[in-house]
Amino acid sequence: MGELLIPMRRPLWLAAAALLVAGCSASGHEAAGGTPDPRPFSGATHFSADEARALHRAEEAEVGACMERRGLTYRTATAGDARRDAADSPYGLLRPGWAGSDGYGMTARVLAGPPPDPNEAHLAGLSGRERARWRTALLGGEEGREEFAVPGGPTLVYSPDSCVHTARTEVYGEGWTRLEFSLQHAGNEVIERTYRSPGFRGAQAEWARCMREEGYAYRTLEDPRDRIQRMLDTARGDPGRLRAAGRAELASARQDLECQLGVDLHRRVAEAQRTAEEPVRRRWAADLERFAGMREAAVGRARHMTESGSPPAPGRS
Questions:
Q1: Predicted model pTM
Q2: Rounded to 5 degrees, what angle do the CA atoms 14, 17, 22 make?
Q3: How do beta strands 3-5 and 155-158 pair?
Q4: Chain-centroid distance, C-alpha 308
Q5: Please, are residues 85 and 72 in contact by the beta-carbon 8 Å criterion?
Q6: Is 271 exposed, middle or buried (0-12, 13-18, 19+ CB in 10 A)?
Q7: Can you give the three-state secondary structure of the chain, one letter per residue?
Q8: Which pLDDT tens digit goes with each residue over 179-202?
């Protein structure tokens, strides 16, 4: 299996969007308007935008505290677009009310650009040796790295002494990194099994037929985004091409949503996932239960920090 190295900083919403935990209903929670929003393991630990923002602030604060203890300056980074990213579907399903104004959210992300790095100016004023020390404190160095192999999956390599890992432990609790990584793998397995299921493939074929009748030669739910991404890649900052990509995105997304709703795609994908995830859920039951408890505690700590300005001491598990 391949090796995955994850010592870098990343917005919390990105991690949150990838995390998948046990739930109480088999088909997933409901999006606005009552449309099913299927996610692996029912999306019970899918973080809302508010939760993601609170957790990001807590994690960044702990990173800053860790760096300060090491005599280093760290300026906390703002989160990305938590609302849009929390709404992203692992199956490419669209939410009613969003497609008409936001499309797939792709052109808007390009126009917004990446979040600014608040530490860029500070690092520019350091010597090469000082920058290396700063980055090693934040992300970890070559020495002291640990490996964790998911059974039947990839290998995680991380630095327990890094401020990134220290902060995540303070916010989420001991053992979170390995548990998170394991359940990312389990969730990906659910998605892959769902994609391969007859129920999903049949529903997707009907959606593709509907799109074809409206002039869109798509075969899979990923195809519309791939087309828009190609347009954005060729635009290369050209205002006219960006506007054209934005118009094409809105038109495609509106028709995409209409066909999804027309073939009852959200409900059918939820049903396909319910069957596909059963053996995976049983295999990971104990880890899913532990993760759900850690998630609840982490959200509570993050909200407490938002209200009081400092988090209570985390539980160790």
A1: 0.81
A2: 145
A3: parallel
A4: 27
A5: no
A6: buried
A7: CCEEECCCCCCHHHHHHHCCCCCCCCCCEECHHHCEECCHHHHCCCCCHHHHHHHHHHHHHHHHHHHHHCCCCCCCCCCCCHHHHHHCCCCCCCCCCCHHHHCCCHHHHHHHCCCCCCCHHHHHCCCHHHHHHHHHHHHCCCCCCEEEECCCCCEEEECCCCHHHHHHHHHHCCCHHHHHHHHHHHHHHHHHHHHHCHHHHHHHHHHHHHHHHCCCCCCCCCHHHHHHHHHHHHHCCCHHHHHHHHHHHHHHHHHHHHHHHHCCHHHHHHHHHHHHHHHHHHHCHHHHHHHHHHHHHHHHHHHHHHHHCCCCCCCCC
A8: 989 998 999 999 999 999 999 999
Query: How many degrees, rounded to 5, is the angle at CA 279 between CA 278 and CA 282?
Result: 90
The rounded distance, in Å, linking the Cα atoms of 137 and 92 is 38
Give per-residue pLDDT as tens, 133-152: 999 999 998 888 999 998 88
The string of pLDDT tens digits covering residues 36-79 is 889 998 886 578 888 989 999 999 999 999 999 999 999 998 87
Alpha-carbon distance of 315 to 61, in angstroms, equals: 18
Q: CA of 30: how far to CAs of 33, 128, 184, in Å?
A: 8, 51, 22
